[in-house]
Specification:
Helices cover about 75% and strands about 0% of the residues. It is mostly helical. The protein has two domains: about 110 residues; about 30 residues.
Length: about 180
């Protein structure tokens, strides 16, 4: 008996393991689950059972599985023993795909919401900027007031000039 130098962990025995590709096995299980879940499979299986029972009941020569059809029950049990785990594996893979799709949909929805909020803020800022802009009606009103003020100033200047001309003409000596 040989001693190991490291006694802190248990001894590792020889391991026998099967190596397989989980992805390929998963695809295989999904194809089996898709096949077992079809009406075609049920009709084919029903046909085989009818032929099996008919041959074993009617023909004395071909009787390989006598009543209570133990071999047929064994075939069904074997089929169920393999089909159930394969179907569960296919469901688990579908659940993982659904979860990934849900996560992706959630991320897309969050991005869409962020984009929508950004666009709403941009539209609000454009509205504020447009609120500060002069409309043609406001511009027309301002021009009318400016024109009126200019006309009043021109009239007032004319009056002042007329008065100054009148005052200047009074101050000038007349040729008498």
């Amino acid at each position: 008996m040989t001693r190991r130098s490291d006694l802190s962990s248990p001894r590792q025995g020889r391991k026998f393991s099967l190596h397989y590709d989980p992805e390929q096995f998963g695809q295989f299980s999904e194809s089996i689950a898709r096949t077992l879940g079809t009406a075609r499979f049920l009709v084919l299986q029903t046909g085989i059972v009818i032929v099996w029972i008919s041959l074993n009941v009617a023909s004395a020569v071909l009787r390989w599985d006598k009543y209570p059809f133990i071999l047929l029950n064994l075939a069904f049990s074997t089929q169920a023993a393999y089909a159930a785990p394969l179907i569960l594996l296919a469901q688990n893979r579908q659940e993982q795909r659904d979860r990934l799709q849900t996560d992706n949909d959630r991320r897309v929805a969050e991005r869409t919401q962020a984009d929508t909020e950004f666009l709403a803020r941009e539209i609000a800022s454009v509205r504020v900027a447009l609120g500060d802009m002069i409309t043609s009606e406001t511009l027309r009103d301002n021009l009318m007031r400016l024109t009126d003020a200019t006309e009043r100033m021109a009239n007032r200047l004319d009056e002042i000039e007329a008065q100054s001309t009148k005052a200047t003409s009074l101050d000038e000596p007349r040729g008498e």
